[in-house]
């Protein structure tokens, strides 16, 4: 029996080595493929921009490649123009300038970093980014998001369709008027739970159960750094028991994160209960090496001025966010973000 166990362990080690080698090979092939598309895109872009090549020439090039390398796919006329667009999008002065600002690097360093970033995603993911993003900030945001959270192409498409960039930007702008010590690019507002398919008259318990049943999709929405610790987590204070809604641990922030659910519009008294739970978590659950717990109050709507008043003297790391059970128009969110930026700019001027 012991011999079988030993062999089984050793066999698993061999399989693990094979899988690791496969992954390295896949990443190397993908890296070479993306760099190839980038270089071909560069050549086509330069020739077309200089007026040396026109549409007929690109069409002829596609036919030539098909004749010489019939096994290759993606090098038709449309594919070549996609490679041209790919090269131009990530070498455009606006994009390089944005990257230089974010990373505080020179232009040459920024372009080298761009190539390193690009090779970490599959071509199908890049096609999504090219078709569904507009500004350099948006492209860079989703590029980092896909790499950091190791998003599949399907997951990336969901994040693009649910306007994560606009929602994250909205929450960052709102944090400036509330609790400025909260980490940037960590929260969203609103959160989108289109995968729940809840009826209109759902209860808080219905919402909680639905989120737990769709835990993988919920974590994709809130961010992959979260580890689920439980629902109705018991906190004992004095002689009474209290139960929180959804408790998580965030690996990067090294802290507990509590999600409290409300199916109605935000009321100031909700914040008092959230702060009470955060204090109990920090005193009785948090470990000495961990950071203070963070609370996120998810409400079915909120009035900005009421939130601003409620948060004005709040000292706990907490945020109030909307949640929606249907996808929201990206245009609507972009307009909302634009209006909020204008409001904050006017306040600064005043």
Automatic annotation (TrEMBL):
Pfam families: DUF1016_N, YhcG_C. It comes from the Bacteria. Residues 185-336 form the YhcG PDDEXK nuclease domain. Residues 14-167 form the YhcG N-terminal domain. GO terms for molecular function: endonuclease activity; nucleic acid binding. Keywords: Endonuclease, Hydrolase, Nuclease. This is Predicted nuclease of restriction endonuclease-like (RecB) superfamily, DUF1016 family.
